[in-house]
Design brief:
Blueprint (H helix, E strand, L loop, with lengths): L7 E6 L6 H14 L7 E6 L5 H8 L5 E5 L16 H6 L4 E4 L2 H6 L4 H13 L3 E6 L3 H5 L3 H12 L9 E5 L13 H19 L8 E5 L7 H5 L6 E4 L6 H8 L5
Parallel strand pairs: 1-2, 1-8, 2-3, 3-4, 4-5, 5-6, 6-7, 7-8
Length: 256
């Protein structure tokens, strides 16, 4: 199914967490519950790179469950010890890669030029991207949220990006791991703003088809309200994606 045809996208970012036993838990969950999952929901699991190949074995027979990497190099295969190229990720079964996450920007000083190059490498190797954008707490307090988001789209978003290969994840930095989340109507307003800027950038109606998901302290207390919004196309889940019972509720948000 084309990316634009999914009703909701639920992505799990395990960050630097996980284990083989956790993968086995997910395997048992999918084996038992896959037939009950809605076919119009895409589930993307992004474990650490060391577990990608193992997880691909778990989900290879499921049409709407995918694996994604948490990052990729901005270079093709070369003498770069420790890096993982987009082509290697594609070769081991990845369909998606997260690019521009605030933890990469902040902890590893990834700037706009580097992120642009990573997006370019990923798309050239037929990976779809989950492109993270969002403001920090200081920028929010100074009412610069829309300015920051506009600049991130303008300076980083590649002309090769389309609604068929790119998911936009609005992740306010101040909400990640903090337990704080913006109100649903605030997220909706920001999503409308993003769509408006994309339409202006590309000057076409197709840009309105971009899937825009929300990330930042998504948990069992707030997932349903977020996912029931018609203006929010899904969620990027951190800590709650490591707890199979919690993630099960989020994936089955419309059945509880």
């Amino acid at each position: 199914m084309k990316l634009t045809n999914y009703n909701k996208i639920i992505s799990a970012n395990w960050k630097m967490n996980g284990s083989l036993s956790l993968i086995d838990e997910f395997k048992r969950f999918f084996t038992k519950n896959y037939e009950n999952l809605n076919n119009d929901i895409a589930v993307i699991i992004c474990p650490p790179a060391t577990y990608l190949y193992k997880f691909n074995e778990v989900i290879k027979n499921y049409n709407n469950i995918f694996i994604g990497a948490q990052d990729c190099s901005n270079k093709e295969n070369s003498a770069r010890t420790g890096d993982i190229s987009a082509s290697i990720l594609k070769d081991i079964g990845c369909e998606y890669v997260i690019i521009g996450h605030s933890e990469r920007r902040n902890h590893y000083n990834e700037d706009s030029d580097l992120i642009f190059e990573k997006i370019d490498c990923a798309l050239k190797n037929n990976l779809k991207i989950i492109f993270c954008i969002g403001e920090n707490e200081d920028e929010k307090e100074k009412l610069k949220t829309f300015e920051i988001i506009e600049n991130q789209i303008k300076n980083i978003f590649s002309s090769a990006c389309t609604p068929l290969n790119t998911i936009i994840a609005y992740e306010p930095i101040w909400a990640i791991g903090s337990g704080k989340t913006p109100k649903v109507d605030e997220i909706e307003t920001i999503n409308d703003f993003i769509k408006k800027k994309l339409k202006s950038k590309y000057n076409d109606n197709f840009s309105n088809n971009y899937k825009i998901i929300y990330g930042g302290s998504v948990n069992t207390n707030n997932y349903k309200e977020i996912l029931l919004s018609k203006k929010i196309d899904g969620v990027l889940v951190g800590g709650s994606s490591l707890i199979i019972d919690d993630f099960s509720k989020i994936v089955n948000f419309n059945k509880y």
